[in-house]
Amino acid sequence: MTEQSLFQDVIRKRRSVRKFEAGRSVSRAALERIVDCGRWAPSGANVQCFDFIVVDDPELRTSVMDIFLQQAQRLVDHAKGFPAVKKTYMANTVAIIIVLGDPRWKVCFPQSTTSEFDAEYQENNEAIFLCSLGAAVQNVQLGVAAEGLTSAWLSGGGEETTNAQLASLLGYPEWMCAYGTVPIGYPSVSQDRRYRRPLDQCLHWNGFNSSQYRSHEQVDFYESTVRPFAMYRDHESMLDWPDAKEKLGDWLPAFTTAQSNPDEQLQAEADFSSPRVQGRATRRRDRDQ
């Protein structure tokens, strides 16, 4: 195999897996190689605004897991309708990597010298910071896959309550933030690829193709109806779902072909800060409030 095909194979092997084999261990040499992948991630102004805490002590792993069990329960209690995952699977991890973001380094990004552009550059610098951390987390996950291990990306550590608990446990300043938590283990089940948009739907040549635009209504339908299935089913294409027509109905072509928007009409910006339609998730949220 060529180096290119080997690299693409690692990318496709990366999976958010939540079923690990019990009683396994991993060497610190392997964990160092994984973190070194994160170290080589690109970052704005090359500030490398990330640190990596590797938790491989069994008792400390259990304490981290307890924090995420509480975090999962908060999702059930305060983010009703979101298809939350129980974090008990973390009991069989061989290590947990916490990717910390250090916000001080945003000062190295472009700063406005005129008040007119203050907000613009502050928002852009926050985006640079978060993109840098996302690159580090992704590199860690690819390093995990390259070692024949598997992982998941827990973003819940970035929540204020969870981050405060992790900071107290692990000793980092609370103003730093656990933007990525990566539990690592040996997969106990083989999993196919999660749903991915067709390449010819998300790839645009030399400009944005409006026939590939996803409408507000498609986002509404995904959030209200399809999300619980698309998040966890082990098929790259929704066409492989035995109940695809039942779940997607008239939206089947929009999720499975090159043209999600055949009439090519674009839309003005809309408010998506909260669910806009009544679906299963929103009905449950309203019922429980």
Tell me what the structure shows:
It is a single chain. A four-stranded antiparallel sheet has the order 1-2-4-3, sandwiched between helices. Helix 2 packs antiparallel against helix 4 (118-146) and helix 3 runs antiparallel to helix 5 (160-170). It has two domains: 10-185, NADH Oxidase; 199-288, no CATH class. The protein is of the alpha+beta class and 289 residues long. It is built from ten helices and four strands.
Key words describing this protein structure:
single chain; 289 residues; alpha+beta; NADH Oxidase; 2 domains; four-stranded antiparallel β-sheet; 10 helices; globular
User: Could you give the distance between the termini?
Assistant: 55 Å
Main beta sheet strand tally, sense and closure: 4 strands, antiparallel
What is the CATH third-level topology name of the largest domain? NADH Oxidase
**Strand/helix succession:** HHEHEHEHEHHHHH
Secondary structure topology:
Blueprint (H helix, E strand, L loop, with lengths): L2 H11 L14 H12 L10 E6 L2 H21 L16 E7 L16 H29 L3 E2 L8 H11 L6 E9 L13 H4 L13 H15 L13 H5 L3 H5 L23 H9 L1
Antiparallel strand pairs: 1-2, 2-4, 3-4
Helix pairs in contact: 2-4, 3-5
